[in-house]
Amino acid sequence: MAFLADCQARLAFDLIANTWNAVVVWALRNGPRRPGELRAAIGGISPKVLTETLRRLEANGLVTRRAYAEAPPRVEYALTALGESLLEPIERLGGWAAEHVDEVMAARDAWEAADELEERTAG
Questions:
Q1: For 18-37, what is each residue's pLDDT tens digit?
Q2: I need a labelling partner for 64 at 20 to 30 A (CA). Which of 43, 74, 110, 111 fits?
Q3: Is this model's pTM higher than 0.85 or not?
């Protein structure tokens, strides 16, 4: 299968390629959450990036936003059925990462060591 510009598979890769998309989808797997709850569950995500990610996921039909008419205002985000359909692929990719993390890190370390050696011998 060729991954052409209009290929349907590229849509999925584009959605998963953004690290925060998959992380936010995964964080919503157990039900609706408020933005503060998501930030606490995820860690390391700024409010701005979380907002951008939630808007992107909402625009792609993966997340719904529900605003409550309360004081102070309350907003919750939840997965749509389409968003829930991404949980299995995300889980499988996470499983692959857990299974192969040592191999990936060893390859990365070897590549960096070879790159450093090349830089030292070239200069």
A1: 889 999 999 999 999 999 99
A2: 43
A3: no
